[in-house]
Amino acid sequence: MTTDKPPLVQVHAVLALAQREFKGYFESPAAYVAIIVFYLMSGYLFTATLFLSNMATISGLAETMPLIMTFLVPALTMGLLSEELKSGTFETLATLPLEDWDIALGKFLGFAGVHLLTVAGLLFYPALLRLLAAPGAGMDWGETFGILAGLGLMGLMFGAIGLFASALSRSQVVSFVIAFLFCFIFFMAGNLARFSPEFMASLLEFIGVDAHLNTLAKGVVDSRDLLYFASITFGFLYLTVQRLQARRL
Amino acid sequence: MIRAENLTKRFGEITAVDGLTFEIPVGQIVGFLGPNGAGKTTTMRLLTAYLPADDGRAVVMDLDVAEHPLAVRRRLGYLPENNPLHENLEVTDALHFIGRLRGLTDETARTARVKAVVKTCGLGSVVGRRTGELSKGFRQRLGLAQAIIHDPDVLVLDEPTSGLDPNQVLEVRDLIRELKKEKTLLLSTHILSEVQAVCDRVIILNGGRIAADGTPDELSGSLQNKNRLHLSLKGPAEGIRQALQGLPGVAAVSGPSGSGEADGRFVVESEASVDLREEVFRLAAARGWPVLHLSLERLSLEEVFRKLTASSEGAP
Lengths: 249, 316
Prior knowledge:
Strand content of chain A: under 5%
Structural class of chain B: alpha/beta
Structural class of chain A: mainly alpha
Strand content of chain B: 25-35%
Strand order of the largest sheet of chain B: 6-7-8-3-9-10
Oligomer: heterodimer
Largest sheet of chain A: none
Mean pLDDT of chain B: 86
Low-confidence stretches of chain A: none
Shape of chain A: globular
Number of helices of chain B: 11
CATH superfamily of the largest domain in chain B: P-loop containing nucleotide triphosphate hydrolases
Mean pLDDT of chain A: 89
Order of helices and strands of chain B: EEEHEEHEHHHEHEHEEHEHEEHEH
Radius of gyration of chain B: 25 Å
Number of domains of chain A: 1
Number of strands of chain A: 0
Number of strands of chain B: 14
C-alpha cells in the first residue's frame, strides 16, 4: 500500500483496462459495423483478384485495405477517451492510483486486441485458397504473412493516432474526423510522392505508409519499416499521454 | 487526515480556490458548504491530485499530494461530482473493474471486498443489473461502493446526495454516517439540512475562501450579536414584563402590556454572551407563573449561509 514510485507501467491496471475495453467492443454496435465492413471489403477485394485476374494471392488487400482502414480504425478508436471525458468517468480513472501511461496503454491494448484478431481473421482467405488450389500450386506464404503483418502494424499505428484524437475532444464525431484526417495524410503522402518535386518526394515517400507496407507485402522484413510503424505508434501514444496530462491543468 | 495549507488554484483570470487553510483530523466528518462556484469541487480535485495546485500544498494522511499523488490516491476514495459511472457494466463487474484498477489483484480477496461493499451500500437487490438500468439512488450507492472498494482511510464525496428524492437522500445519509465511523470524511453539498444532519463540522466556502469554519451550532451562534429568548408565561402581563426587565443583562423586552391575566408571549433580547433561560425559569418558579414556552432563538444555518455568501448571490 505504501510503495511510492510505481513501476513504469502497472501491468495489473493496464490489463484490467484493456480487457474492459476489449469486452466493451463486443457490446457496441459501432464495433460490429466496423468489423463487418472490414470483412465485406476484404472479401470483395480478395474474390475480385481471384476471379478477375486468376491469381492466388491476397495482394489485392494490400493495395486498397489501407484506404478503408483510414476510416474503419478511427471508428473503433473514437470512443476510447472521448466517451470517458464526456461522461466524466475520466475523472474516476484519473483519481485512481494510475499514471496516464497506464490509462493510454490499457485503452490502446484493448483496441489492439480487437484489431489484431480482425486482421488475423483474414487468414481465412489464404487458407481457403490452399484448400482449393491444385496440389503443388502453392501460394506465396511470405507475401501472405507480409501483407497481414503490414496491415496489422499499420492498424496499430492508425489506432495510436485514433487514441490521440480521442483524447482531444469529448465528441466522438470530432475525434473520428481528426483521426481520419491524420490517417488519410499518412495514407496519401506516399501517393503524392509521385507528383512531387524530387526533394520532397523521398520525404513524402518515407512519411507515407505505402512504401513501408509494400516492402512488407513483398515478404521482406526490413528493420526500417518496423521502426517506422513502431516509432509513429509510440509517438502518438506519447502525445496521448501529454494530452491527458495537459487536461489536468 | 486532510490538511490544506494556503491552497490556491487559478483558472486564467479566475481564482477558484484562494489560499485555503484547514485541517480535518481522523474520524471527523466535514461538510463543504457554499454556493455554486464557491470552489468546493476544485478544492476536492486538488485534494485528490486530479488538478495540480498553483500555490500552497495539500496533505492527505501525512502524504504531500503533489509529491506522492499515487500514494495519496491509494488511501483515498473519491466520488466525483455527478457520480460518473461506466455505463453498460453489471454492478459487481463495475466494482471488480475498479478493484482491479486499484490493485486488488487477488480474485478471492477482491470478491470478498465486492461482497462487503455490496452489503454496506445496500446494492444486493440490483446485483445482475447493468449500470445503465439503475435508478439514481442506486447509481449513487454504486458510486459510493466504488469509492470505498479499497477500504480507504479518507473519503471525499462531491455532492453525494444531489438529485436524489427525499427517501434516497436519507438512505445515502445513513450510509455516510455508517462510513464515518472509522474514516476521515469530506463531503460537499449545497443542501444546508444535510450538513446539520451528518457533519461534525462545516466549512463554508465563498469565492474560493473560507467564510466560516465551525460546528453547525457554533456557526449559528457566532453570527449573532444578540440572543433572543422567546417565552410564554401565564400570569399578569405587566408584572411579568417588569420582572423580566429587571433581570441582569436584559436589553429589551417586547410583548403584551396591561394588567390582564394572559399567557403572553414575550421576546427578551440580551447580549449574545448572556443565556437567560435559567434566570427566567427561576423567576417564573418564584412568582408562580407557569412556563408555557421557552426557547432560545439561533440563526438557522440557512441564515448564516445567506449572510456569509450574500455577496455572491446571482453567481451561476
